[in-house]
Write a structure and sequence with these properties.
This protein is of the alpha/beta class and 512 residues long. The protein has 19 helices and 16 strands. An 8-stranded parallel beta barrel has the order 1-2-3-4-5-6-7-8, surrounded by 4 helices. An 8-stranded parallel sheet has the order 13-12-11-10-9-14-15-16. It is elongated. 43% of the residues are buried.
Length: 512
């Protein structure tokens, strides 16, 4: 029989890393109603954050009116989190004063390097009448921090519950047992565990913690949470039900169904990059930003993590690009207009003897195969595979251009192109979107010092309703074209139809 540990559900707080702390009010109401009927002790609703320059939704700030509404509906103890690095004791009246009477516990996200200041913050919060919890991060690194365990004695009498946080998702059951044993030498408060699921050890680590007599454990519906996510609350409840915990599986099924659309949209959960990050104690934040970046391929993320594991900044280095000079250059984008007008473009090339094609993507490479002008292919992320699919690998005589060394995601160049591959010395016209192939293409064009910089296949997206990917790509290109023209004094001229208003438009046909 397992000792009964308190269960804390942090679905809204940890799940906000995917939804930007926006949750539909009807979903939250259903969540509260279901939690009332499940054996959950605490609900962590989100953050109380100071003003931030970036957008965070309602549960990133947990306004008092929302907490009052939830308090009126919930039968559970309620918690919100503050981040020790973002607040000071003198901020607490403004940040926590408005929510007195609405929440029971304030959990503090604690960097173990900042334990002293976190204890001072906790003292202030306790004097305001709240229970205080520590979510102390990076438990796999605690032993490396000099004096960490000895300093923990300062939490006694202040902190109600000290949570071990497996920030990287890589601790083992042995690590959990040893950490609990060491903690008990120094603290007399409750001990909790918050795991991540990078190596699919969330359940066994949590059960190990419970078996070691721990007082509280965290989980979330469907495992929603930063990066690879957390232990699934439904899995934990199902297991504990075998041990006698009373669970109403009908209502549990209801809330799982309610959160399924979010899972379909964001697809959290572990994969090879998250597994590598967990095994090597790499930050979840970095890997999550890579996994959700439309530019980075799965293989490029794995390669970047493997480079980091081997303590190398990049896995390959190539000669610096020494640009030839051309009177004109054409940058080829991925839009369909580059194919539609390919015949006209080829005639344009014939009457412009000093000209080069720079492909910002190999998507339209076949349309210009065999033209008698120098061609350059910018590759990053998925483009290495696309290049291999769209060019004649047996007779490849064109050049490949890479970002400056070292490259964040490491280097992937198809074998057939390695002898013709070069890396830019630097990006000079922008500080934005350094991982964009359009950035590489514009810089290569700038290095060639042409009289005219033309683009084709930068069509833009028609209609008023665009996908997230289309909006992101449109914004990226607009910013890059604006930066290029403002910072170099050069026009960018589209020879094919475009919806990018910042580009000057000319018809390719007026020039042939």
């Amino acid at each position: 029989m397992f000792k009964k540990s308190e269960l804390l559900d942090c679905t809204l707080r940890d799940g906000g890393y995917y939804t930007n702390w926006d949750f539909d009010k009807s979903l939250v109401d259903e969540y509260i109603e279901v939690m009332n009927r499940l054996p959950i002790d605490y609900l962590e609703l989100g953050y109380r954050n100071p003003v931030d320059k970036s957008y965070m939704g309602k549960y990133g700030y947990c306004p008092s009116y929302e907490l009052e509404d939830i308090r009126s509906k919930s039968k559970k103890k309620l918690a919100v989190m503050v981040n020790e690095k973002s607040v000071k004791p003198e901020d607490m009246d403004a940040i926590l004063g408005p929510v007195k009477g609405c929440v029971d516990m304030i959990r503090i996200a604690v960097n173990p390097e900042n334990l002293d200041s976190a204890i001072t913050l906790a003292e202030t919060i306790k004097t305001m009448g709240f229970e205080v919890g520590f979510n102390t991060m990076y438990m796999s690194k605690w032993k490396e921090i000099e004096g960490f365990y000895e300093k923990l004695e300062g939490v006694n009498g202040i902190v109600k519950i000290f949570n071990m946080v497996d920030s990287f998702g890589g601790v083992t059951p042995t690590d959990v047992s040893e950490s609990i044993k060491e903690l008990r030498k120094h603290i007399n408060c409750m001990i909790g565990f918050h795991g991540h699921n990078n190596l699919q050890l969330g359940l066994i680590n949590t059960l190990t913690a419970i078996e070691n007599g721990i007082d509280s454990v965290d989980a979330t519906i469907l495992g929603i949470g930063r990066g690879a996510g957390n232990l699934n609350m439904e899995l934990l409840l199902t297991f504990l039900n075998k041990d006698g915990l009373d669970v109403d599986f009908n209502v549990l099924g209801d809330i799982i169904s309610a959160f399924e659309p979010l899972h379909e949209k964001y697809r959290w959960g572990t994969n090879l990059p998250y597994m590598l990050s967990g095994a090597n104690s790499f930050p979840q934040k970095d890997v999550m930003s890579w996994v959700t970046n439309r530019v980075y391929s799965f293989n490029s993320i794995v390669r970047a993590l493997d480079n980091r594991r081997q303590h190398q900044v990049d896995n390959e280095k190539y000669p610096v690009f020494e640009a030839k000079k051309y009177k004109d250059v054409i940058i080829v984008g991925g839009g369909n207009e580059a194919k539609v007008h390919a015949e006209g473009i080829k005639h344009f090339l014939e009457v412009h003897p000093s000209i080069a094609l720079i492909h910002a993507t190999a998507r339209n490479a076949k349309a210009y195969e065999g033209v008698n002008v120098p061609q350059y292919f910018c590759i990053m992320g998925n483009e290495a595979k696309r290049l291999k699919r769209n060019v004649n690998v047996e007779d490849f005589k064109n050049s490949v251009i890479l970002a400056p060394y070292p490259r964040v995601m490491g280097t992937d160049v198809p074998e057939f192109a390695k002898k013709n591959t070069f890396e830019l010395k630097e990006i000079t016209f922008t500080k934005d979107y350094m991982d964009s192939c359009t950035t590489l293409a514009l810089q290569a064009a700038l290095d060639m010092n042409p009289k005219h910089v033309y683009v084709i296949g930068y069509d833009g997206y028609p209609g008023s309703v665009l996908s997230e990917k289309e909006v992101a790509l449109t914004t990226e290109n607009k910013i890059l074209f604006t930066n290029f023209q403002n910072n170099t004094g050069r026009e960018v001229i589209s020879l094919t139809p475009t919806l990018y208003n910042g580009l000057k438009s000319e018809s390719v046909y007026q020039n042939i």
